[in-house]
Amino acid sequence: MADNGKTRLTAADVVAGASTARAGKLGGNPYLPEIATAIEIIQETPNIKTLRLRFDDPAVQESFSFLPGQVGQLGIFGVGESTFAITSKPSEKEFIQFSVMKAGEVTKAIHNLSEGDKVGIRAPMGCGFPVEAWKGQRILYVMGGIGSAALKATIEYTLEHRSDYAGITILYGATAPENFTYQADIDDWQKRDDLELVLTIDRDCDGWQCDVGLVPHVLERMNPDPANTIAITCGPPIMIKFALMSFQKLGFTDEQTYTTLEKRMKCGIGICGRCNVGPKYVCVDGPVFSLAELKELPDEL
Amino acid sequence: MAIKYLSADQLPAFLSSLAEKTRVVAPIKTDGVVQFQPWAAGKDVELDVLLAKQSPKEFVFLQSETFLKFGYSMAPAAEDGEGEAESASESAIPCETVDVEALNEAPAQVIFGLRPCDARGFVQMDNVFGGYGGFYFDPLYSARREATTLLAVTCREPRSTCFCTAIGGCPAGHEGVDALFTQVKDGFAVETFTEKGEAATAFAGLGDASDAQESEAAEVKLQATGKVDVPFALEGIRDNLHDNIGGEGWHDLCMRCISCGTCTYVCPNCYCFSINDELVESTGERYRVWDNCFNPLYTEETSGHNPRAAKSNRFRNRFSHKFWYYPDKYDSLLCSGCGRCIMHCPTRIDIREVLRVMGTPVGTTPAQAIAAPAAECAAESTAAPPALPVEATRAAPASPDGKEA
Known about the structure:
Largest sheet of chain A: 7 strands, mixed
Structural class of chain A: alpha/beta
Oligomer: heterodimer
Helix content of chain A: 10-25%
Largest sheet of chain B: 8 strands, mixed
Structural class of chain B: alpha+beta
Strand order of the largest sheet of chain B: 3-2-6-7-8-9-1-10
Shape of chain A: globular
Helix content of chain B: 25-40%
Strand content of chain A: 25-35%
Shape of chain B: globular
CATH topology of the largest domain in chain A: Rossmann fold
Order of helices and strands of chain B: EHEEEHEEHHEEEHEHHHHEEHHHHH
Radius of gyration of chain A: 20 Å
Strand order of the largest sheet of chain A: 10-9-8-7-11-12-15
Radius of gyration of chain B: 25 Å
Distance between the termini of chain A: 41 Å
Number of strands of chain B: 12
């Protein structure tokens, strides 16, 4: 049934008559990862690495597509899987990219990978940001630390479709200069004149020429006009909490304000039960939620 | 559908005929505990104890199930010659490969002697694993479920902890049941509801039931239905749980909970699971195991942040899941009223009390039992109204009909 792990198993393979069962997503075994190989590993910060991975099956690599904001399960056989935002450009055809902060068992093992090593990927999962519906509006990204990973693909998408959006502003904060991920991209963004970029660090240090201050404070100093603007935030939970309060203070409505959530996950497909916030599963109903949607849910973030 | 009759002394022969073709699972008493176990000739099926300690869900949704096997190996070096091995390994880039195999065994099996609430538990899990409403299809559970035939036995003597009729079930309910066996004098009246049930009961020892046996079975069902307590009104529970989400009551109710998770393991509907990997040298497996939402680690994140760190939040999650979150997704309930969680809770937490307190409108005192038996049961008791237990008859205005059926 399984041919080098590439063949998807269907219920019909194992039980006659099961093909009449309700048709489901993926049509096969949603627990079976696709094998991929690490082709490039970038040390972004002292504890964050970006991995570029290519599916071993060329047909899978070629047909792979995702929406900005969607996530995937990246796993190492023998250690386990964890959920990460897909950080490649949605138009990227050569590889799929994740950025991973070293924190627990799985992420430690991911950090130990070398180019050429094998991983398992189940992706894409969840809902992306409604980038189509945002056409014509200004987009304001407010992110901190590794939260940039969750917004990276969306930033890239809106930059690739720059003429569809009225403006793009990125406020990006980190504890210290060496903790900014995507330094190469930041250099590119700084050179663009169709993009406003504000970088901030928590405490001033020698040689730093951009802003100093916590992200919500800097955001309020920037005083962005909420008119025709979508505000998106991601970062540590405490930063998200205060950024959402700042948006409200600045006059952004709940419908204009978006974030993307993180939860402990196992199956990633809305079955195993743990990533719920009230009646919503972060893995299938999210991870993207508007503030209006979040306010409908129990306070279990 | 004509009702058949199987005499009690023919039961072992009937099960033997099934066991020739498939695995047969039945409630069997071992060391004083009744559990569903694989049946073999010579083992007595225990039907006098109403509920086996655990539901038979573990035969379809396994406690532990390996679904991937994998093995790492290094790609063979370009040269195989002994003397050149060293230089080959220096020049060639080491290339790791991993072979992954998906497992999904689904042996045909017949589960005999489960109760209608147990069968309804499978139907409720079918929604989750079967992709109801456009969600993902789980091939592991679904394959086993497809290969499983459920031969349920009517509950003659419901326990004081039973409340199936309060939530749309019935001691003789046939939701998810392939064939229903109702104990009558010296045997069983047998009704089939599906092709699987037909196939499983195609046994020479089954004859047509006599009129007397048919009416006795109807009477047994009627009597049993009347004996089931109706401890709360289902109507409005979902909305009231929603409105009570911040209620103080959760804190009070969960005080004596010790987060052991027993209620989730004995529940015929609880389906949460975890996934783990094991690796020994270069080969390993990925498996899923039952999990329980009362365990703080269930939601604890690597950072140490826990969205349900408080016991009251985890407690609230379980009951809200069954009567609010799940219904929102699957248009049904995640409880079939078997009462096992009440029987086995070491601190006597009672789901009926929880629903009475948190399932009533904000600011009102918990109502007494006010639901009517479900429509299905009511329909089967056309001749006379069911003899409701004293507590239930005392209850105030019955809702007009079995709302949830």
